[in-house]
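Customer escalation, tier 2.

The customer says the design service returned an amino acid string that "doesn't look like it belongs to this structure." They asked us to rerun it and document both sides in this ticket. The original structure tokens are below, unchanged.
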């Protein structure tokens, strides 16, 4: 069900507490990738444009495990945010406590304050009601725009909803629209492309999508467990013995549901798993002894392209090969290009898949590139995300 968003709230003269995902990579006290900060800007700017508002931002960074770890301070993030907003950002000395309360109470219209790392406080991860109440006491209303943390039932994501009127920000709204609504109500044909390293990490996604898609394309390292259970030889390719049964059940279920399954029919293989390995074309579905399947081959690429170009909706999670090694990035690149060129509604989720699409410079041509690795995966598994569940519906 659609969640209440910032558009449906009157923020006039309100002090707003907003949960964002500023869990960005840091190196020597500098933000090395500010994507997550920039993703939050539309909601931040919208709130600051409303009459008489001030804004308190809060986030976690890393895993400090409930104690103060100076290297995980959000100070560098405040610095970067200041540059991006072109205005001062007050850095709070903590996330709760007397000093923070005083700072919050003295905020004037247009002021922005960033609280210190929420996970410095043990109450955050425990979804402790007292901690949630203290956070809530800092402001009049709450906005959640932290999609990357939506699968975490933490105080700033869940508990705080109990003590303040709440709603979703633009980023959260967009993620729910694409990962939720599109997947639940896809325009057909609906094609899912699932790859990556392991069957074990993707089995729930495969099972959930199986009842929705017309075609399921399985590539990447996980394809070899499927090929093995079909009686093919896979050489030294990635294999999860414990998941042979699971793979077989999935293939049987696909047949029963009339879902077309596309698996690799040829490969680029290598003699060793290394960046310097020379790609060897294996034109057959069977991989010779001692060789490792590293990428999908040209016949497979063509078969996948054909399905993509007929699709109206595409969901993609997991690279088609070891794209980090340039010699084995071809399959992933060709698929990314085709998805980008297709007129279909396209959604890409998953940390490495998104990294691949960004590396190829194609993210602008995808309808939606999800910002949450773990969160988008759980969404595709059909799970309810606590941070979203806790928000009121429209
Ligand atoms: P995502 O983060 O998009 O969900 P995964 O984490 O499941 O994707 O998988 C990404 C990893 O899968 C990449 O590091 C990639 O190198 C690896 N991978 C893809 N194909 C193969 C293969 N044939 N053999 C081994 N690893 C592979
Ligand atoms: Mg990954």
């Amino acid at each position: 069900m659609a969640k209440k968003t910032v558009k449906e709230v009157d923020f006039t003269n309100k002090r707003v507490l907003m949960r964002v995902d500023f869990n960005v990579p840091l190196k020597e006290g500098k933000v090395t990738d500010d994507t997550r900060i920039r993703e939050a800007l539309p909601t931040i700017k919208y709130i600051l444009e409303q009459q008489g508002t001030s804004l308190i931002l809060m986030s976690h960074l890393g895993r400090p495990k409930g104690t103060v770890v100076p290297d995980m301070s959000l100070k560098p993030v405040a610095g970067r945010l200041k540059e991006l907003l072109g205005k001062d950002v007050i850095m709070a000395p903590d996330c709760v406590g007397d000093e923070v309360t005083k700072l919050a109470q003295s905020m004037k219209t247009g002021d922005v304050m960033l609280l210190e790392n929420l996970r410095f406080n043990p109450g955050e991860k425990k979804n402790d009601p007292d901690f949630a109440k203290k956070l809530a006491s800092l402001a009049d209303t709450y906005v959640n725009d932290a999609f990357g943390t939506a699968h975490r039932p933490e105080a700033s994501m869940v508990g705080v909803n109990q003590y303040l009127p709440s709603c979703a920000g633009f980023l959260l709204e967009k993620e729910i629209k694409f990962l939720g609504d599109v997947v639940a109500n896809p325009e057909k044909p609906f094609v899912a492309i699932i790859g990556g390293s392991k069957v074990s990490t993707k089995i729930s996604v495969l099972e959930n999508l199986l009842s929705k898609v017309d075609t399921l394309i399985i590539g990447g390292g996980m394809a070899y467990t499927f090929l093995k259970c079909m009686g093919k030889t896979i050489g030294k390719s990635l294999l999860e013995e414990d998941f042979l049964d699971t793979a077989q059940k999935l293939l049987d279920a696909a047949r029963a549901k009339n879902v077309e399954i596309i698996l690799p029919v040829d490969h680029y293989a290598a003699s060793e798993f290394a960046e310097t390995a020379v790609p060897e074309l294996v034109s057959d579905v069977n991989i010779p002894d001692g060789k490792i399947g590293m990428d999908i081959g040209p016949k497979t690429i063509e078969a996948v392209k054909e399905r993509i170009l007929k699709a109206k909706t595409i969901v993609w999670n997991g690279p088609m090969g070891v794209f980090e090694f340039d010699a084995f990035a071809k399959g992933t690149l060709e698929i990314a290009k085709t998805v980008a060129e297709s007129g279909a509604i396209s959604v890409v989720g998953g940390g490495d898949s998104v990294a691949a699409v960004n590396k190829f410079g194609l993210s602008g041509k995808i309808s939606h590139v999800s910002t949450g690795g773990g969160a988008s995966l759980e969404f595709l598994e059909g799970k309810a995300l606590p941070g979203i569940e806790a928000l009121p519906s429209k």
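Tier 2 assessment: The sequence is consistent with the input. Residues 195-197, 201, 220-221, 238, 293-294, 317-319, 321-322, 324, 350-353 surround adenosine-5'-diphosphate (ligand 1) (CB under 6 Å). The chain has two domains: 6-171, 178-380. Sent an explanation to the customer and offered a walkthrough call.
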